[in-house]
Amino acid sequence: MIWVKVGYLGPRGTFSEEASLRYFAGKDVEWKMYPSIVDVLDAVQEQEIDCGVVPIENSIEGSVNTTMDGLAQDPDLFIEAELVLPIEQNLLVNEGTVLSDIKEIWSHPQALAQCRNFIRSLGVRVKTWDSTATAALELAECKRQDIGAIGNAWAAKNFGLHILQSNLQDMSENHTRFVVVRRGETALSRADKSMLLITLNEERAGALVHVLNIFAALELNLTRIESRPTRKKLGTYQFFIDVEAGVQEEDLQKAVSIIGTFGHQVRVLGSYMKDKKI
Ligand SMILES: O=C(O)C(=O)C[C@]1(C(=O)O)C=C[C@@H](O)C=C1
């Protein structure tokens, strides 16, 4: 019996797949792969799958805007878990390719950005693909000797590529936070972290500080604040705020209601257990 249908960015060999397999280890899962992060979120919305696993933040490159905007635009999506995956980027090549042969690097934009210094040191062009695994698979299929792909060791092994160099990313410590997204609110009763989306009702001096002071007064610790454009007018923003409290906690409920009383919009994007791995 299939327990849960889970979708992630494919094809096989992506970091999203690694995150999904780790998170759902030991569970009965029917897996579905999608060509883009937006497609994963759409499939959750359309109930083609029960949950989607998508990257949201990387320690070197920062937010994955596609995921942030997808969550902000779809009021039905809810984050039920987070997991943090260590990311090691490798230079993958066809057999016989040496570093001086490489004229172009292929990968997903997030992976290319994590390896900016390495790519600059080679002084070569880049080409972006929908995932690191797509780049690796295309390279293996075209057998070109003048291209390198950036991706994980699984892709090298399974697509018959060679690892020319490991740990290419700008900082040796590299982690990506993934979130598990469902349709409809499914907060755990023991959640200890939440993600809120706040849209201020007016542009005035101190409006954001005022909101932040509400969390401070209730001794709610914030672990992340990111702004994204509202997309309606240049210079207007929405704020993604991670707070160390579950939605079931009275203080967080108080904060949400006070912020609402001042006319600002607050949406709880998710409430879940903090991944304590890093
Ligand atoms: O292309 C992949 O392998 C992905 O799973 C996507 C993704 C991302 O978008 O952040 C996931 C983790 C890494 O940070 C690099 C790429």
TrEMBL record:
Enzyme class at the top of the EC tree: lyase
Limits of the Prephenate dehydratase domain: 5-183
Catalyzed reactions per annotation: prephenate + H(+) = 3-phenylpyruvate + CO2 + H2O
EC number: 4.2.1.51
Keywords of this entry: Amino-acid biosynthesis, Aromatic amino acid biosynthesis, Lyase, Phenylalanine biosynthesis
Keyword Iron-sulfur: no
Stretches assigned to coiled coil: none
Name of the featured protein: Prephenate dehydratase
